[in-house]
Structures are given as structure tokens and as C-alpha cells.
């Protein structure tokens, strides 16, 4: 069975609809056909300012949301990145074959560091994509389901795998990205030309999986649209309506063309009210199940320990091959 690997950062109070529709929905579907590893990437989460108590809470809550959304911990390997030391160890080795210029071209780094300023930007944020490459390459991964914003990091991962193989001998499988068509980029409801993101200035444009249903419905009903009346998909001219149609299509399973026909001659209010209902219907069971899982942290920790043991065994073996390949002598 081919291997699939993906992860999310434990940051903020909840995963949002972009994380869910862009990635998590595909994780759930693909776990049937792949030997899947789903990681809570806490090493990545400390590359920006963070609060230790909040991080602890968020790591468990992120794992709980994976399970609540449909990841089966019996079938898939669910674990926390910091529990498997090989991630940080391989990242070091990969950092020595990553060009400084190459890493400097990563647009996520450029955007985030530009926002924070040079003094607040850490070296860890700079090497973030190298750690992500290590995550993926440790497991002989064939497929990586992510949203569109991770495309460039996946390209770097593929480049590093190829470069290592040609320099030190065939060691890594070169993985493929799996990026959905309609939901690769879900936009902020209040600012529909920016992607929905945990680091948004305001929470009003974010649909959080753990928001109260009333709040979710209100956020969708208050989504920014435009001054026309026509419900049609046009990303450039009508970013707000196009985003709502994308979300509708993802949740209802109807095509954009069918939705345009269904809403022909109707007002924006109808679209928003119906979409709010659909989204609440989909998200509310995830919220309820997450809260149940969070009520038993010992059981969550047990599940995560099982996953860590399994991941650790695989990762150690890959790391040993890498250490041999670069010329480290073995410890007796
Ligand atoms: P993170 O936590 O920022 O995002 C988690 C996943 O959600 C997707 N995503 C979106 N998809 C559609 N629309 C949006 N508005 C939106 N916002 C986020 C992201 O593309 C991602 O798939 N670097 C990764 C975490 C990571 C990882 C890995 C992923 C670390 N190591 C190895 C895959 C494989 C990230 O940005 O997570």
C-alpha cells in the first residue's frame, strides 16, 4: 500500500473551514486507499511566538479534530511530530543540501517575515519548509494531500529528495502533491481576496470548526459580497460570491454550474442562509465529537502514543539509511 503523509499546525483555538475543505476532507477519503500518516506538527508551531499552555491544549485539540472529522486512529497513524525525534534530525541533514537562496524564495516565508519584521522573524521560520520536507521524506511517502498554499513547499521537498538521491545514492521516494480543485484555496469571508488563515487580523471571516453553530451561521450570513445581484462564479470580479459558491459546492457536492442555475434570479440572502445551514449541519457533529474527545485527554494521549510508536519505528530506519549515506559512522 502506498504511503500518504500530511499534517497541520496546532495553533489557535480551532481548525478552520479552509483546513477542513482544503485538506482534512481528503485525508478522510484517502485513508481508505493509503497507509496514511497524520501528524500534529508542533515543531512547526513554535516557529512563531506561542504560549506553552495554549500549545499543549492545541496539540490535543488538533488531534481530536482529526478524529472527529473522520480520521480513524485504528487504520491511520495519528501522531505528534515532537514525539518522533527523527523529524528534527533529518531536517538538519536536509538543511545542509538546501540553498540559502532557494529557501529565501519561499513565498510563505517572505510574506510572514515581511509582516513580522526581521528582528521578530526566527531562523526556525526560515527553515520551516526543510522540516516539512523531512516530515514527508521519512515515511517513503507517495502522496501529500494539502491546500494550494503548500504547493511551493512540496516542490522544494521533491527537489531536496532528488538532490539527495543524486548526491548520496537512491534513498528517498519523490512524493506527489495532492491538491483539490475547487477547495484548494478557501478565502476569508470578510476579505475574500485573502485566504482563510488562522493569522487573520479578525476572526469574523473565519469559519472555525469549533465555533458555536449560531456564530458560524452569523459569520456566513455576514460574508462580504458585491453590489451586483447576480449569483455567478467570477473569481476576479466577484471574489466573495465565488468563495461562497466554492464552499457550497464542496459541502453540497453540487457543481458550480448547477448552483448557478439553482440560484438564477434569486438574491444573495438566499444563498447565504442556505449555505449557513449546510455548513452548520456539516460542522456541528465535528464540534460535538471534538468536545467529547477532549473530555478524555488520557485516552487521546494513549492513541497518540500508539501512533508515535509506529511512526518512530519507520522514521528511525529511514534516518539510519540517511546517516549511512552521508558518511556518518555507526555508533556501536
Ligand atoms: P497549516 O496548519 O497551515 O494548514 C493545514 C492544511 O490546511 C490547508 N489550508 C487551506 N486549504 C484551503 N484553503 C485555505 N484557506 C487553507 N488554509 C490552510 C493547508 O494547505 C494545509 O494542507 N506546512 C503545513 C503543515 C505541515 C505539513 C507537513 C503538511 C508540516 N509538515 C508535511 C503536509 C506534509 C501547513 O501549512 O499547515
From TrEMBL:
Q: Name one GO biological process term.
A: tryptophanyl-tRNA aminoacylation
Which residues are L-tryptophan-binding? 135
Pfam families from the UniProt entry: tRNA-synt_1b
Q: Name one GO cellular component term.
A: cytosol
Query: Residue ranges for motif 'KMSKS' region?
Result: 195-199
Superkingdom assignment: Bacteria
Kindly list the GO molecular function terms attached to this UniProt entry: ATP binding; tryptophan-tRNA ligase activity
- Give the UniProt keywords, A-Z: Aminoacyl-tRNA synthetase, ATP-binding, Cytoplasm, Ligase, Nucleotide-binding, Protein biosynthesis
EC numbers listed for it are: 6.1.1.2
Self-association state and partner proteins as the record states = Homodimer.
The cross-references to NCBIfam families, in alphabetical order and at most eight, read: trpS
Name of the protein described by the UniProt record: Tryptophan--tRNA ligase
Give the organism, scientific name.
Answer: Agromyces rhizosphaerae
Amino acid at each position: 500500500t502506498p504511503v500518504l503523509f500530511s499534517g497541520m499546525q496546532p495553533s489557535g483555538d480551532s481548525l478552520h473551514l479552509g483546513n477542513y475543505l482544503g485538506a482534512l476532507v481528503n485525508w478522510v477519503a484517502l485513508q481508505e486507499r493509503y497507509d496514511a500518516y497524520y501528524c500534529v506538527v508542533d515543531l512547526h508551531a513554535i516557529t512563531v511566538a506561542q504560549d506553552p499552555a495554549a500549545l499543549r491544549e492545541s496539540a490535543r485539540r488538533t488531534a481530536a479534530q482529526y478524529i472527529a472529522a473522520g480520521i480513524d486512529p485504528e487504520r491511520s497513524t495519528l501522531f505528534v511530530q515532537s514525539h518522533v525525534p527523527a523529524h528534527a534530525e533529518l531536517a538538519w541533514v536536509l538543511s545542509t543540501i538546501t540553498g540559502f537562496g532557494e529557501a529565501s524564495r519561499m513565498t510563505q516565508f517572505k510574506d510572514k517575515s515581511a509582516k513580522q519584521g526581521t528582528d521578530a522573524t526566527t531562523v526556525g521560520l526560515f527553515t520551516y519548509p526543510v522540516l516539512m520536507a523531512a516530515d514527508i521524506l521519512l515515511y517513503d511517502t507517495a502522496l501529500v494531500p494539502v491546500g494550494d498554499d503548500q504547493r511551493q513547499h512540496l516542490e522544494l521537498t521533491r527537489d531536496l529528495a532528488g538532490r539527495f538521491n543524486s548526491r548520496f545514492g537512491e534513498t528517498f521516494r519523490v512524493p506527489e502533491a495532492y491538491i483539490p480543485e475547487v477547495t484548494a484555496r478557501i478565502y476569508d469571508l470578510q476579505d475574500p481576496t485573502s485566504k482563510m488563515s488562522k493569522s487573520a487580523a479578525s476572526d469574523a471571516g473565519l469559519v472555525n470548526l469549533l465555533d458555536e453553530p449560531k456564530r458560524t451561521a452569523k459569520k456566513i450570513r455576514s460574508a462580504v459580497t458585491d453590489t451586483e445581484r447576480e449569483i455567478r462564479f467570477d473569481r476576479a470580479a466577484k471574489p466573495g460570491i465565488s468563495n461562497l459558491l466554492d464552499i457550497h459546492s464542496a459541502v453540497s457536492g453540487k457543481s458550480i454550474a448547477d448552483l448557478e442555475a439553482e440560484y438564477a434570479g434569486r438574491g444573495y440572502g438566499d444563498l447565504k442562509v442556505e449555505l449557513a445551514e449546510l455548513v452548520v449541519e456539516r460542522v456541528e457533529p465535528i464540534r460535538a465529537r471534538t468536545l467529547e474527545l477532549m473530555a478524555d485527554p488520557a485516552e487521546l494521549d494513549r492513541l497518540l502514543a500508539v501512533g508515535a510508536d509506529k511512526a518512530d519505528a519507520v522514521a528511525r530506519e529511514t534516518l539510519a539509511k540517511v546517516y549511512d549515506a552521508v558518511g556518518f559512522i555507526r555508533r556501536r
